[in-house]
Amino acid sequence: MKKYELQKNRTVTIKGKTLFGIKALISFCSVVEGDEGGFVESEDNLAHTGDAWVYDTSKVYDLALVTGNGSVSGNSQIFGNAWIIDDVQVCDEVEISGTVVIADYAIISGIRYYKIVGNRR
What is the pTM of this model? Predict the structure, then answer.
């Protein structure tokens, strides 16, 4: 079952890529059916399972993935090969890129740019 849909009429362009707004099809966690979320390049960027969500004007694109109960908010950007999984919260204009998996119970906040390069294990 899908928990959100891509909004073809609500888009942003970043680094030459078109990202689509998301809209909740069901209620879960703090998201209510009909809520609009942030932006993803495709459904490959945000899992339909768990409580994962992209809030506000945040953006997830390239091969990046938000899954599990991960959340991205506050105009943050996740891109490259970055994966946000489990109960990780990214907020407050954080940018995460490179090849990285952030897992378990982490909160990453503040106006910072994180670029972690390495191999996923």
Answer: 0.91
Amino acid at 103: A
Tokens 């990046």: give the residue.
64
Q: Which residues of the chain have pLDDT under 70?
A: 111-121
Positive/negative CA dihedral, 83, 88, 93, 94: negative
How far apart are alpha carbons 7 and 114 in whole angstroms?
Answer: 29
pLDDT at site 15: 94
Q: How deeply is 32 buried, as exposed, middle or buried, from its count of CB atoms within 10 A (0-12, 13-18, 19+)?
A: exposed
Which phi and psi angles does 59 have, rounded to 5°? -135, 140
The Cα–Cα gap between 30 and 63 comes to: 26
Beta strand 59-60 with 53-54 is unpaired
Tell me the residue ranges of DSSP E strands in 55-120.
59-60, 65-66, 71-72, 77-78, 83-84, 89-90, 95-98, 101-102, 107-108, 113-116
Count of residues making up the chain: 121
Mention every residue, 6+ apart, whose C-beta is less than 8 A from residue 9.
Answer: none
